[in-house]
């Protein structure tokens, strides 16, 4: 006799169980204590997206204050805190986290491994970064309280000494800045070590180093660069804290210390840092562009060599941020040359992407829209970078809105565009559902238009003498209308990002089912179910070429014949 | 399923990957080298720039004994590594303990030196540029010695309680790499502070 | 198809020229009595040289953009998927050494050209030896005002720099020695020269060689604290006669007018002397600006507001009205004291 309480084999469950409190706690616990690279990758990405929204809100406040001359939307003190926090947040809490979001999720899947080399180090690194960011934002409720923006750092994201010394910054703002970034720095070192160890030591059979997907290679280069570049910042911050708390004299000019040396140490970190931020964007584009052009990447060995070359040369260009600080003419000339030289491997990458698209059959789905816009925008950003490398011209453009326009062209026009492209591309793998193409296209076009309205125009006030870091400007300098246009573009971008957030949430519940390989791609992650099971691969894969799935799909014309 | 077609030639060759512990330790050493480089550069840049207060030649004595102890500890740890490789756990334990003792002597010696500098010569981290850069650089190194000694002590305790066996040789070599790095940094710090800077 | 791409490319080329024209004549479009410090409207030799170099660089980078963006536009149109049924895979090309070599060599050549032009100009501007006729001015940056000392003329000016007109046959440039009293600042008057930083323990130098009279605006260009935005600069390029008259006035001690003795008494007893100097009186403070010739300036508080009696009175009463966070404290004077001291300061021409 069939008892109605026994489950009938093969039948559907009568009704889904409601989640009890124990279930919710167990679910939370699984996320907080996870060492699974996929979960940690998602945590990093959620963190990055959250702080992208927070940093964006800070930017909107800045742009409202600057929309017309002599606005009183926020006080000078609050403005200075907001732009410092905007920069610090975007570089460290968005830039450094998206890198490890993509790297942690994708690298083991792409190399046929079951997890990163050091799963517990992975978790440690994430939570260090998480708490460092929390410490940084805790500063908002210090000092004079939230509406005066508390004790948030207010000396620019570069925190030049001696402005940050006790004498000129008696509060705790620089301390929050230094301490929180030392904490996140530990996270970055741990994550970088993990990426490198994983890529070299966890590859599946047949995956030689020259068969690694470009995303893996470029992230390895970026992580190696991060190892060398983050610790100089930690060193400088320790020196600053010694000055502020132990009576040290590193940057104390009254005692013979140097104001210039902070700038040198900071930019020795700061310049390679921007390459650490942008290389993973190249990595994403190097995966998306071939798949949507239906061709292998053009010149794989050259792309690898160019990435390594960029990393090396970028260690020698830092003083192009300091052309006006009073170096000798020979010193200035040296850094002009090194800066121009780093443009060469970078331009080679642009040409290689172009050559990948040449002769292809380009499908303009949302990921490809973002990555194509990236190529144009990165080209423009590189050209304004060449303009800035011309030291005499730099003496005019340094610290002006031209520079802000240039680096936002890279940070938003290259990096954020690639982040969006990458999310549209891999979201189906992570969640099992496609993001809405319709919302995606709205997101893309609005963001593209808003981006260009803001950042194309922003070059002009710089050329007309408008410096950066100013909470207001004189009405008769001719900058008012231009600033208004820039601010309006910012609002358009904000709307686009909101559409993106809606897309992320809506598609999670209602998006089309993706299957293993919705884009007809060629790297190993597309051979797993979407989302992949905890163990990634049921049996260890064997790689036969740079595009293992191409070989499977085209047994008559496999890649290993041509490599 | 995720099996992929196998190219015949490759199936025969053994698939050898580097040891992840070693790769990770190399990466850590690179990162640490960068931080030490910055402190060394700050020290070198500031040589002779103190406007007042004690100068290096006035107060610094060459810590020869300490240095010999620390550098010998590299030798003893190397001997310990060889011992555990061959499965001689007791011998390993002895050399390892000796390494720890030599490192501890170095640390105590540094403490004695600092005591003299602070209480007899009046040189603190806030006295002048020399004081700031000296204590920062030597202190950074000493903190890494402390970290190393802590790790060495943990391994020593595991050895004494019988948990360390020959199969742990690889991991011990990774830790020993860190200790060698700490010694190498001391050679540079010693040269910069006590020879060039004096 | 090709026509579409060509139109696209020529449009982007044309827009560059429109942009140039716009920038060069920007002054005609902006509002108010014009003080737009455009780097494309140079009036001094270093600024002129930088302008010429910038046009050269813009032409090269513009050409690169037109070529590469044009190619990209072509690729997007020519090689797009022609509809959902167009699903055959194209020929797989893995690379080409010749092509890679070509697009490495060409950028290297461009870099060589740009570098040599740039290096030459760096040495020309930075290492230019000062002629004997040069005027020497020492600029000291403070939070948030400028101090201008003319050592050979015995003048201590504040916030508004006067320099003599120069010309190309017999140049009389002004050489600025740059120092800071506190944090890092930067001296930037775009129409006269590129900017150079002012550091607390490192003397920097720059020169300007103004070829047209007039008033040129600029401001501090290195974030120096809460009122960095209002650390404005004015440079007055005077004819030799105007300059001589200005110098003569600045060299006088302060005007001593008995009718405002009450105000002078307020000044001397209310601790104003601790920060300010008035030549010829007991006030010799160095922390704040020299007030000996306060009324000879067009603006107050480093360009924050016009120099009128009302503004001056309000500034003394409550500096945060104009420059929140400025280092001058509100002196807690009552109305009578304010009127008296303002009347006194208003006589300091």
Question: Can you describe this structure in just a few lines?
Answer:
The complex is a heterotrimer of chains A (563), B (198) and C (349). By secondary structure, chain B is mainly alpha-helical.
Give a topology summary.
The complex is a heterotrimer of chains A (563), B (198) and C (349).
Chain A: H1 21-32, H2 37-65, H3 76-111, H4 119-138, H5 173-201, H6 214-245, H7 260-293, H8 300-314, H9 329-357, H10 366-389, H11 391-397, H12 401-431, H13 437-457, H14 459-463, H15 480-510, H16 548-553
Chain B: H1 8-12, H2 20-45, H3 56-59, H4 64-85, H5 89-120, H6 129-160, H7 169-196
Helix pairs in contact in B: 2-6, 2-7, 4-5, 4-7, 5-6, 6-7
Chain C: H1 2-24, H2 26-29, H3 45-78, H4 97-126, E1 135-142, E2 145-150, E3 155-158, E4 160-164, E5 174-180, E6 185-188, E7 196-198, E8 204-208, E9 214-220, E10 232-238, H5 240-251, H6 261-269, E11 299-300, E12 305-306, H7 309-317, H8 335-345
Tell me, what's the shape of chain A?
Answer: globular
CATH architectural group of chain A = Up-down Bundle
CATH class of the domain at 59-196 in chain B: Mainly Alpha
Q: What is the overall pLDDT average of chain A?
A: 95
**Interface with most residues:** A-C, 98 and 98 residues
Annotated CATH homologous superfamily of the domain at 59-196 in chain B:
Cytochrome c oxidase, subunit III, four-helix bundle
Instruction: Report the strand count of chain B.
Output: 0
**Low-confidence parts of chain B:** 1-9
User: What ranges of chain A have pLDDT less than 50 throughout 5 or more consecutive residues?
Assistant: none
Q: Name the beta content range of chain B.
A: under 5%
What is the terminal-to-terminal distance of chain B?
68 Å
Please name the CATH architecture of the domain at 59-196 in chain B: Up-down Bundle
Main sheet summary of chain B: none
CATH class group of chain A: Mainly Alpha
Main β-sheet of chain A, in a few words? none
């Amino acid at each position: 006799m069939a008892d109605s309480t026994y489950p009938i084999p093969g039948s559907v469950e009568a009704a889904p169980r409601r989640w009890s409190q124990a279930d919710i706690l167990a679910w939370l616990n699984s996320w907080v204590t996870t060492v699974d690279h996929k979960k940690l990758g998602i945590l990093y990405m959620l963190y990055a997206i959250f702080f992208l929204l927070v940093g964006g809100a800070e930017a909107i406040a800045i742009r409202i204050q600057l929309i017309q001359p002599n606005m009183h939307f926020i006080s000078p003190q609050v403005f200075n805190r907001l732009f410092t926090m905007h920069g610090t947040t975007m570089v460290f809490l968005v830039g450094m986290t998206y890198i490890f979001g993509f790297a942690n999720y994708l690298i083991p899947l792409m190399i046929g491994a079951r997890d990163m080399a050091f799963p517990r180090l992975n978790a440690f690194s994430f939570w260090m970064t998480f708490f460092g960011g929390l410490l940084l934002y805790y500063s908002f409720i210090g000092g004079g309280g939230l509406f005066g923006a508390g004790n948030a750092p207010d000396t620019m994201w570069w925190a030049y000494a001696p402005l940050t010394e006790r004498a000129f910054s008696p509060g705790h703002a620089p301390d929050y800045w230094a301490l929180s970034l030392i904490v996140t720095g530990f996270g970055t070192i741990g994550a970088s070590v993990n990426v490198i160890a994983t890529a070299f030591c966890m590859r599946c059979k047949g995956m030689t180093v020259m068969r690694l997907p470009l995303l893996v290679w470029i992230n390895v280069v970026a992580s190696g660069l991060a190892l060398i570049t983050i610790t100089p910042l930690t060193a400088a911050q320790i020196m600053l804290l010694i000055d502020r708390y132990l009576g040290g004299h590193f940057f104390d000019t009254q005692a013979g210390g140097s104001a210039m040396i902070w700038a040198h140490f900071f930019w020795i970190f700061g310049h390679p840092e921007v390459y650490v931020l942008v290389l993973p964007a190249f990595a994403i584009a190097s995966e998306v562009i071939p798949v949507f052009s239906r061709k292998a990447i053009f010149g794989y060995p050259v792309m690898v060599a160019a990435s390594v070359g960029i990393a090396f040369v970028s260690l020698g260009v830092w003083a192009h941020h300091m052309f006006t600080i009073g170096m000798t003419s020979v010193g200035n000339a040296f850094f002009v040359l090194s800066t121009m030289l780093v443009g060469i491997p970078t331009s080679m990458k642009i040409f290689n992407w172009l050559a990948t698209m040449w002769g292809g059959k380009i499908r303009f789905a949302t990921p490809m829209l973002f990555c194509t816009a990236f190529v144009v925008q990165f080209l423009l950003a590189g050209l304004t970078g060449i303009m800035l490398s011309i030291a005499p011209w730099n003496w005019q453009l340094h610290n002006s809105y031209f520079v802000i326009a240039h680096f936002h062209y890279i940070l938003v026009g290259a990096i954020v565009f690639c982040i969006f492209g990458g999310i549209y591309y891999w979201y189906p793998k992570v969640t099992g559902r496609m993001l809405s193409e319709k919302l995606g296209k709205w997101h893309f076009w609005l963001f593209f238009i808003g981006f260009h309205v803001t950042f194309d125009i922003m070059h002009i006030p710089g050329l007309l003498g408008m410096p950066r870091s100013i909470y207001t400007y004189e009405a008769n300098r001719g900058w008012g209308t231009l600033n208004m246009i820039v601010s309006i573009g910012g609002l358009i971008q904000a709307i686009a990002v909101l559409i993106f957030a809606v897309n992320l949430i809506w598609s999670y519940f209602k998006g089309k089912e993706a299957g293993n390989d919705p884009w007809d791609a060629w790297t190993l992650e597309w051979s797993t179910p979407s989302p992949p099971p905890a163990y990634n691969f049921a049996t260890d894969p064997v790689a036969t070429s740079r595009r293992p799935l191409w070989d499977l799909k085209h047994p008559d014309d496999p890649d290993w014949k041509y490599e | 399923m995720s099996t992929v077609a196998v190219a015949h030639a490759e199936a025969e060759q053994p698939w050898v990957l580097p040891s992840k512990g070693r790769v990770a330790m190399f990466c850590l050493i690179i990162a640490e080298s960068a931080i030490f480089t910055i402190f060394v550069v700050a020290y070198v840049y500031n040589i002779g720039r103190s406007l007042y207060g004690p100068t290096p030649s006035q107060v610094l004595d060459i810590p020869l004994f300490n240095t010999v102890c620390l550098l010998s500890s590299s030798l003893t740890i190397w001997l310990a590594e060889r011992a555990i490789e061959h499965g001689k756990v007791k011998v390993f334990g002895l050399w390892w303990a000796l390494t720890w003792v030599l490192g501890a002597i170095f640390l105590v010696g540094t403490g004695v030196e600092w005591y003299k500098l602070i209480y007899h010569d009046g040189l603190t981290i806030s006295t002048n540029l020399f004081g700031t850069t000296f204590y920062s650089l030597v202190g950074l190194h000493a903190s890494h010695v402390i970290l190393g000694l802590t790790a060495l002590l943990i391994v020593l305790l595991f050895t004494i309680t019988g948990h360390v066996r020959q199969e742990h040789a690889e991991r011990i070599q990774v830790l020993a790499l860190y200790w060698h790095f700490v010694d190498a940094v001391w050679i540079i710090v010693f040269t910069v502070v006590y020879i060039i800077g004096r | 198809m090709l026509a579409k791409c060509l139109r696209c490319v020529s449009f982007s080329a044309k827009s560059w020229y429109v942009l140039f024209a716009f920038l060069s004549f920007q002054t005609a479009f902006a509002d108010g009595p014009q003080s737009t410090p455009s780097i494309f409207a140079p009036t001094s030799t270093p600024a002129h040289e930088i302008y010429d170099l910038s046009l050269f660089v813009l032409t090269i980078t513009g050409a690169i953009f037109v070529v590469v963006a044009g190619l990209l536009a072509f690729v997007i149109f020519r090689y797009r998927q022609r509809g959902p049924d167009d699903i055959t895979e194209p020929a797989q090309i893995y690379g080409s050494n010749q092509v890679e070599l070509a697009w490495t060599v060409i950028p290297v050549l461009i870099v060589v050209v740009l570098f040599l032009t740039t290096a030459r100009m760096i040495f020309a501007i930075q290492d230019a030896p000062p002629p004997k006729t040069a005027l020497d001015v020492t600029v000291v940056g403070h939070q948030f005002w400028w101090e201008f000392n003319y050592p050979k003329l015995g003048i201590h000016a504040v916030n508004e720099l006067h320099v003599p007109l120069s010309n190309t046959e017999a140049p009389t440039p002004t050489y600025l020695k740059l120092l800071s009293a506190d944090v890092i600042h930067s001296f930037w008057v775009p129409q006269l020269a590129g900017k150079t930083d002012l550091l607390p323990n490192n003397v920097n130098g720059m020169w300007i060689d103004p070829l047209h009279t007039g008033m040129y605006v600029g401001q501090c260009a290195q974030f120096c604290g809460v009122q960095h935005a209002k650390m404005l600069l004015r440079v007055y390029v005077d004819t030799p006669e105007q300059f001589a008259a200005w110098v003569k006035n600045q060299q006088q001690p302060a005007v001593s007018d008995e009718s405002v003795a009450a105000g002078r008494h307020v000044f001397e007893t209310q601790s104003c002397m601790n920060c300010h100097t008035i030549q010829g009186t007991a006030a010799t403070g160095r922390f704040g600006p020299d007030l000996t010739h306060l009324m000879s300036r067009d603006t107050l508080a480093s360009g924050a507001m016009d120099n009128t009696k009302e503004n001056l009175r309000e500034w003394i009463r409550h500096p945060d009205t104009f420059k929140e966070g400025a280092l001058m404290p509100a002196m807690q004077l009552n109305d009578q004291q304010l009127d008296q001291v303002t009347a006194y300061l208003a006589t300091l021409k």
